[in-house]
């Protein structure tokens, strides 16, 4: 063989070696995908997708199928963009028994339901870190209530809802000693650490949250949960791990047992025991924060007591279903018959039958007890096992046609399988490491089907890089046919965990467009420019201020002194949709305000130096937006500059009319 | 044979007209619609016999750029007169019918037509004043531009498309004028014939 031939062959071999590099991350998008996600300008998306923000403590509102982000709703995090957690009105929303906690780790969401179907009224959200449950009013897309959960740490199996929104639950992820009794050695884990499950009652009319009772369960780590529905209404199911009750090297020591548990809780029975006076009152401290829409003011109160039922003593409220290897997701199919556990370290998916569960309980078909709670025989309650579904099954949702969809974290894929036969039907790769997934209405009695969204943890190579931190990702699949089809991937805000979604009409029909000025009962409201004024009360200066295109009233204030606390109570006089006004002042150490039409918001400002401080509108509101401004003159402490302000001085350029401030 | 009796169907019509005029006191007389890119849902303003309704406060808010006056119902003397005028015309309709009086019919028709012309003129004058009487210190002054809305029909005013049409009340009032005029002529001819 001639030399050049040899070289040629070698080159060919090298090229083919390179060509043989595995194409792991290849896209599988069919030709008509773009058409299916295209929402033409002026057209609306079909579905609202409410996506948890993980460590950002917020919720994103995303339109499907376009994947466009429509709004960020601050829930557990301060939000300088609009003053949430910074304005005097909203500060109380983030109060807890630990004081003001301006952040959290938000994982799961639940849309309110009636008869097992989404009703479009409320969205509930959990805070993992400082255990809290929030309610978002979907007429305004605002957080209107936050309830802290006592006796808990890591509010992870929350907020899951019963089919008529009777209860939202909050199960603790960390087994903990009861509040106030935590000064114990870690060695005493088995005696002192418990798993508390909170059942938060929801007011039928006002949606008000109230911890009706807690169940004191063994010291497991409660992970996720779902309520029964249809025939299993009245039951709640919680996945739990660390049945080893290990407290060091958890990853190893808590993964020793072949099986952990799903705990089935008969909450109707628990209600009966509560009525029969079987609960013990426990002294605790937890905050309950409510936002009153009529006064536009939040208040925070500390509650001191909670009723606790003992699972150990009341034998027939809790039962343990063995579930292989660290159960994570715990999902109930639309009929309420099948309970799907996902052992995230297991190589199969167990499907349990509610009917069999009832029979087994009836026949006392137990294999033992754990801390006084009966353990059912695995085989007696098992409907079937999905064999070799993939690696690391996490969560399952349903399409209402007898199919289940499970996310596989380790093998980065979504697997579709038949609930009855437990046979795998289809699998599609995700990019990459998918955690939660969601079918529109997929945890209700009537899924809307059609779309599935996978929420992925890692996005290497999916989007333009942005330094070491990359965008998180969601991927939209069409599940209307036999095979799942990838339609779109889009970056998300924060790290999405669980999400909820429903058809747009459910939410659009009740939208509040603006707050009616005549209904504004804020104690510092200014309903017209003529009413605006400046009032000094000791070292507090209250400015009753209005904003309208294109000016503030008052627009100039003199006589504020260093050391004063100035409260700007700004009322937006507009009565038109989508005309908010902003308010900001130089050197303000908290935030700006974004005030909706008809709303009053208060910014507290403590000037530290004498000088002239401009204030202005931050939201470009009109052609005269830049003219929407004024000044506050700050004089040194103890000076006798008179308190005066001016209103609407168009003609003579701020010479008059000047009004005297009131002093109380 | 000499008779003063008004035809039966004329009486029926007069009673219906009277009822119609009473109705027109309580329903909008005129509508003005505005459309602009930033108001895709449109803005509507309705003129009643005694008030304005609709989204006029939003229109007031917008008009500050160009220095138009704000619309406030209590600044119009017309609103204190108009309901009574319509009521009196209704009563005259009933009187003409029940008293069998051609004289009243003729008087009513004459006065009503005068009133109609006056009403239209007053409305036009109002629109003219509203569109031309601008604050010289307005932020936006477009040379040569006035903002008089159309009396009837469509007009483009800067970024706004403006429509102006009679509403139910206006329809009744115009119809009443036409019918009264025809009735008066017919009755006049009949009366002449029967002499």
Given the structure, what is the number of helices of chain A? 8
Could you say which structural class the secondary elements and strand pairing of chain B correspond to?
alpha+beta
Helix coverage percent of chain B: 40-55%
Of all chain pairs, the largest interface belongs to: A-B, 12 and 8 residues
Assign the CATH class of chain B.
Mainly Alpha
- Estimate percent helicity of chain A: under 10%
Q: Could you state the oligomeric state of the chains shown?
A: heterodimer
Basic shape of chain A: globular
Supply Rg of chain A.
29 Å
Number of helices of chain B: 5
**Low-confidence sequence ranges of chain B:** none
Q: What does this molecule look like?
A:
Chain A is mainly β and 664 residues long. Chain A has two domains: 46-509, 7 Propeller (Methylamine Dehydrogenase, Chain H), CATH 2.130.10; 520-663, Cupredoxins -  blue copper proteins (Immunoglobulin-like). Chain A is 8% helix and 44% strand. In chain A, strands 6-7-8-9-17-18-13-12-11-10 form a ten-stranded mixed beta sheet, with helices on one face. A seven-stranded mixed beta sheet of chain A has the order 41-40-43-44-38-45-46, with no helix packed on it. In chain A, strands 35, 36, 37, 39, 42 and 47 form a six-stranded mixed beta sheet that branches. In chain A, a hairpin with a 4-residue loop joins strand 17 (280-292) and strand 18 (297-310). The longest helix of chain A has 17 residues, at 3-19. Chain B is of the alpha+beta class. Chain B has a single domain, classed as Butyryl-CoA Dehydrogenase, subunit A, domain 3 (Up-down Bundle). Chain B is built from five helices and five strands. In chain B, strands 3-2-1-5-4 form a five-stranded antiparallel beta sheet. The radius of gyration of chain B is 21 Å and the shape is elongated. Chains A and B meet through loops of A and helix 2 of B.
């Amino acid at each position: 063989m001639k030399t050049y031939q040899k070289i040629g062959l070698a080159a060919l071999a090298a090229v083919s070696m390179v060509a043989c590099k595995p194409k792991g991350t290849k896209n599988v998008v069919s030709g008509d995908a773009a058409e299916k996600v295209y929402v033409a300008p002026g057209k609306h998306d079909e579905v609202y997708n409410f996506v948890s923000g993980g460590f950002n403590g917020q919720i994103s509102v995303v339109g499907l199928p376009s994947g466009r982000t429509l709004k960020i709703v601050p829930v557990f995090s301060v939000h300088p963009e609009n003053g949430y957690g910074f304005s005097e009105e909203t500060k109380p929303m983030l109060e807890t028994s630990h004081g003001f906690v301006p952040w959290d780790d938000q994982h799961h969401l639940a849309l309110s339901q009636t008869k097992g179907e989404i009703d479009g009224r409320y969205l509930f959200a959990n805070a993992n870190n400082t255990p809290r449950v929030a309610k978002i009013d979907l007429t305004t897309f605002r957080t209107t209530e936050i309830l802290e959960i006592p006796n808990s740490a890591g509010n992870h199996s929350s907020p899951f809802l019963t089919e008529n929104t009777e209860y939202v639950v909050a199960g603790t992820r960390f087994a903990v000693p009861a509040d106030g009794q935590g000064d114990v050695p870690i060695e005493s884990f088995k005696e002192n650490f418990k798993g508390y499950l909170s059942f938060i009652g929801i007011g039928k009319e006002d949606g008000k949250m109230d911890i009706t009772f807690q169940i004191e369960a063994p010291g497991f780590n409660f992970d996720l949960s779902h309520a029964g529905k249809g025939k299993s209404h009245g039951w709640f199911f919680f996945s739990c791990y660390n049945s080893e009750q290990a407290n060091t090297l958890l990853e190893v020591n808590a993964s020793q047992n072949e099986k952990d548990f799903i705990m089935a809780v008969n909450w109707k029975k628990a209600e009966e025991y509560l009525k029969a006076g079987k609960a013990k009152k426990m002294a605790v401290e937890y905050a309950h924060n409510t936002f009153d829409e009529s006064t536009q003011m939040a208040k925070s109160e500390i509650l001191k007591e909670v009723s606790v039922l003992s699972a150990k003593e009341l034998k027939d409220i809790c039962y343990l279903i063995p579930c292989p290897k660290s159960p994570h997701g715990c999902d109930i199919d639309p009929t309420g018959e099948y309970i799907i556990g996902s052992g995230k370290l297991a190589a199969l998916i167990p499907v349990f039958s509610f009917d069999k569960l009832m029979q087994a309980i009836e026949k006392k078909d137990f294999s033992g007890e754990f801390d006084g709670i009966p353990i059912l025989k695995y085989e007696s309650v098992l409907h079937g096992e999905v064999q070799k579904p993939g690696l690391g099954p996490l969560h399952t949702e349903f399409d209402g046609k007898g199919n289940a969809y499970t996310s596989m974290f380790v093998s980065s894929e979504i697997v579709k399988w038949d609930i009855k036969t437990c046979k795998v039907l289809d699998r599609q790769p995700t990019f990459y490491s998918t955690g939660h997934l969601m079918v529109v209405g997929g945890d209700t009695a009537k899924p809307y089907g059609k779309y599935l969204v996978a929420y992925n943890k890692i996005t290497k190579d999916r989007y333009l890089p942005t330094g070491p931190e990359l965008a998180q990702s969601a991927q939209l699949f069409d599940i209307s046919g036999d095979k799942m089809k990838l339609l779109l991937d889009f970056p998300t805000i924060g790290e999405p965990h669980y999400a909820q979604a429903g058809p747009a009409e459910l939410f659009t029909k009740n939208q509040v467009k603006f707050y009616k000025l005549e209904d504004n009962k804020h104690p510092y409201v200014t309903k017209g420019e003529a009413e605006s004024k400046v009032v000094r009360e000791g070292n507090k200066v209250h400015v009753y201020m209005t904003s309208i295109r294109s000016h503030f009233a008052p627009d100039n204030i003199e006589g504020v002194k260093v050391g004063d606390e100035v409260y700007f109570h700004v009322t937006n006089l507009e009565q038109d949709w989508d005309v908010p006004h902003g308010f900001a002042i130089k050197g303000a150490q908290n935030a700006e305000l974004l005030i909706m039409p008809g709303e009053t918001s208060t910014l507290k400002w403590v000037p530290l130096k004498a000088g002239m401080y401009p204030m202005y509108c931050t939201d470009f509101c009109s052609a005269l937006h830049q003219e929407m401004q004024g000044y506050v003159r700050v004089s040194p402490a103890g000076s006798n500059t008179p308190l005066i302000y001016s209103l609407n001085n168009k003609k003579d350029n701020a010479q008059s009319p000047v009004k005297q401030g009131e002093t109380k | 044979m000499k008779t003063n009796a008004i035809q039966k169907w004329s009486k029926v019509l007069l009673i219906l007209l009277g009822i119609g005029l009473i109705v027109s006191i309580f329903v909008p007389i005129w509508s003005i619609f505005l459309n602009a890119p930033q108001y895709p849902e449109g803005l509507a303003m309705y003129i009643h016999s005694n008030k304005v309704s609709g989204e006029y406060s939003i229109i007031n808010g917008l008009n500050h750029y160009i220095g138009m006056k704000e619309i406030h119902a209590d600044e119009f003397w017309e609103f204190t007169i108009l309901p009574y005028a319509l009521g009196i015309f209704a009563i005259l309709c009933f009187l003409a019918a029940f008293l069998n009086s051609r004289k009243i019919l003729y008087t009513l028709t004459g006065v009503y037509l005068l009133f109609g012309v006056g009403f239209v003129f007053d409305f036009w004058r109002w629109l003219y004043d509203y569109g031309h009487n601008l604050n010289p210190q307005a932020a936006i002054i477009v040379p040569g531009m006035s903002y008089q809305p159309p009396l009837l029909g469509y007009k483009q005013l800067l970024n706004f498309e403006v429509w102006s049409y009679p509403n139910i009340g206006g329809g009744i009032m115009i119809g009443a004028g036409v019918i009264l005029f025809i009735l008066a002529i017919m009755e006049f001819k009949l009366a002449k014939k029967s002499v």
